[in-house]
Amino acid sequence: MGWPSNGPTRSASQRARMSVTLPAPPAIRRIGRLGQSAAPAGHAFTAQPATTKLRIWRRCSFMGYSFAIEWVHSMRRMRSQEYSRCWSCLQPLVEGADSLMAHWWEQSMDRLRAIRYLVSAAEGASLSAAARLHGVSVAAVAKLIGALESDMRVQLLERHAHGVTPTVAGRMFLEVCRPALAQLDDAVEQVTASSTRVQGTVVIGVQPVVAQEVLTAALPKFCALYPDIQLDVRYFMNMAELQNRSLDAIIVMGWPQQVGDLVGRALGATTFVVVASPAYWTAHGMPQHPLDLEQHNCLCIRSNTGSVMDLWHFRRGDERVSVAARGSIIVDNVHRDMVRDLVLSGVGVARLLDWHQRPGREVPRGLLVPALTDWVVDEVPPVNLLYAPSVRRTPRVRVFLDWVVQLFAEVERERLRPLPATAMPHWVKMRRLRASETR
After folding, report:
1. Which domains does the chain have, with CATH numbers?
2. Of 116, 224, 257, 408, which one has the fewest beta carbons inside 10 Å?
3. One Pfam match, by short name (predicted)?
4. At 385, is the secondary structure helix, strand, or coil?
5. More confident residue, 52 or 191
């Protein structure tokens, strides 16, 4: 039978005569079975006004596992003898529910940890990289990822001698899990973060040249402004790394392609200056026209796309000149600082970014001397800030993005005139081995 309807307050003798056997509610029977504690066929309760018991029943049906706490609190309002009678029936069920709740919670946390391990293993290309990142053993990582694969009945990682790589199913799963984990972490941070101090880790990808020429000198100021934010700075070379390395934002110089649904913000632009050491110019003479560079040892850089940037464009008024630069050394973009060091030592001529003309750098100090200053280098790569729309809502990422915008605004103000970026050169689109092949 169901709970009795509301009625007038009854005496103790009336309540004793109204003692009834009530069937276990469906939620109790269900949880009793799940908790491996058989629910009794009925419970002997002294009938109470429906206000208390209806509240218990509704809480049991609606809240599931938490019904036991509400029920016990309500039973405590009874006399101790009646409470003991109720508790004797309820105790096995509560213990079963507690055990089930603990088991369910442990399983849920294990699955969440397994997904985090999977993401880290895919990013680090090995289980050991995930183990080091999370401070656990490789066996623990392998066990949880294996359990996740067994539960999903699909292989997510391809194991081989050199590490692991995601399968097709694994890549599909990771595409969904990465933003989901990011949103979960952001939600936890927004709830738990202090209202006055922003904290957490910001993972940024930065091209080496941007890090070396601009970011490194400015980072101490950011750390002083936001001491509770940790910056995880990673070298970034191509757009594919944005998804594979779970970056919050990237700072890239050049003409990025295939940015997808990322938000792009122009930070400014930079251009090139032709420089050499004073000793080199003294020994070989300074060029008076761009074509004179064909007689010099021009050190070239290979771009991120694999093309050697050996086609140097110059403009003076309506006159335009392109020079196929040739020299004894070609250096990858990631090692661009080697070119600077070689030029400083007098090896040859190079086309370096105009950031070297900023206060305190090599040109103002006289270590490098620019040539062809009456000509404009007719190729101006932009500097872009790229990030996913969702990360802007995260306080720690938002303050970093705003700070980067202000930093490059200061760099732009150091120039006497604004420097608009030029369109993507043909050699970037055509992907030739040498830019000079596109002439």
Report:
1. 12-103 (no CATH), 121-191 (1.10.10.10), 193-269+383-413 (3.40.190.10), 272-379 (3.40.190.10)
2. 224
3. LysR_substrate
4. strand
5. 191
